[in-house]
Every structure is written in C-alpha cells, then in structure tokens.
Design a protein that fits this description.
With 222 residues, the protein is mainly α. The protein has one domain. Helix content is 61%, strand content 3%. The chain contains 9 helices and 2 strands, in the order E-E-H-H-H-H-H-H-H-H-H. Strands 1-2 form a two-stranded antiparallel sheet.
C-alpha cells in the first residue's frame, strides 16, 4: 500500500507519520494539540447539533399559517446553501492560506484519520453567531430558519467528512462519490475540491479536480 492511500475504510497517509509529527511540533503546537480530540469530544457535536436543531424547531412558530411555514422553510434552504458557500470559502482561503489555521489544517492532511477538529460547541457557537445573530432583527422565524439551515449544513459536513475517512463505502454510492471527491483533494491537488457537502462551488469557481489527476494505483473508481 502506498504512502497516501485511498483505502477501503477511508483516506490514510500511512507513510506520513514523520510529517505529522513535524506539523504538530511547529509554532502552533498548543493550538494543534487543542484540535486533537478524544472520542467523546470528537463525537459531541454529532449529538449536540441535532439537539440544537430540535430546540430551534420547537420554538419556531410553524403552526401560524402555511405561508409563514413556507417562508421559514425558505430560510432553512437559504441557510443551507449559504453554509455550502461558507464551507468552501473557509476551506479554500483560510484553512489553506492563513498561517495559523493552515498549520492546524496541515495536521489533518498529515494524519487524515486522526480525530482532529474544533473543540466541542465551538463550531455550534460560531454558526449561531454567523447565522442566527445577524438575522435576529428580522424575527425569530427568519433567524431560526437560517440558523437551522446552517446547522444542517454543518451536520452534513461532519457526517460526510467522517465517512470519507472512516467508513467502508460501497463503490457507486453517493457517499462513495463524495469520498472520491475529497480523496482527490488529499491525494491529487490540495488546491482544489474544497467542498465537502457539495462540489457545486468547486465547479462554479474552477477548482474541481478531474479524476484523471488521481495518482496511479489509487482506488477512485465509482
């Protein structure tokens, strides 16, 4: 098996232990250590995100009128689409180019299967700050709908990214194709395929990596 393998159970860099050690010993060692999570911390947001979504839905005035419910669902859809754009922008321009975040993200590229991520609740708090607070002046329905859309996007991101690195996926399935898209980011070009939830923005912005650029011997077929 090669040093950087799109293996049966996900993406791995079996030959990059030294690179990972070098990354984690850099100037941002403290921050990188904080991003290395135990299992409870890593999986916490998988539980907390649905709970927060349920709470926001419970408080939403969905029973007022069909028009109000439709408007609320519209805000959910807009929030979800905005999440996919935000995910793309953050991954492309911050994780790969802003020094502090780039060094932390390098740890993930060096050890793709390691439990590396934002500490519990931090991601959820940032989503509420970015999605809920700016729209709070428009009323609870708009703010909660937009925030729920963002939270659904965040939850989808977590599940898809985890699946790409840890699940045994059947070739030809949608999840497998999503993992293949992310595998090209890891093993063909780190300057492309930034989207996790969708490849829409990669295609729209010209950063989609063609399958023909996959390294020889890589298991990337659908």
């Amino acid at each position: 098996m090669s040093a950087a393998t799109f293996g049966r159970y996900g993406l791995s860099n079996n030959g990059n232990a030294g690179a990972a050690h070098h990354v984690l010993s850099g100037s941002n060692q403290g921050a990188q250590f904080a991003m290395r999570l135990g299992k409870i911390a890593y999986y916490a947001d998988f539980i907390l995100a649905p709970m927060l979504i349920a709470f926001l839905m419970w408080r939403a005035p969905l029973s007022a009128t069909a028009t109000a419910a439709g408007a609320w669902l519209g805000w959910v859809a807009v929030g979800f689409v905005f999440w996919t754009l935000l995910e793309y922008v953050v991954h492309r321009f911050i994780y790969h180019h802003v020094p502090y975040f780039r060094e932390i993200h390098d740890a993930h590229h060096a050890e793709p299967n390691a439990l590396i991520g934002a500490p519990p609740v931090v991601g959820l708090a940032l989503i509420m700050l970015v999605f809920y607070v700016p729209l709070s002046g428009l009323g609870y329905a708009a703010a909660s709908g937009f925030a729920i859309g963002g939270l659904l996007g965040y939850l989808g991101y977590m599940v898809l990214h985890h699946a790409a690195h840890h699940w045994d996926l059947k070739p030809g399935t949608w999840l497998f194709m999503a993992r293949r898209h992310h595998a090209l980011h890891h093993h063909a070009s780190e300057e492309g395929n930034y989207g996790i939830v969708t490849s829409l923005w990669d295609h729209a912005c010209g950063t989609a990596v063609p399958r023909s650029r996959a390294p020889k011997g890589r298991v990337l077929q659908s």
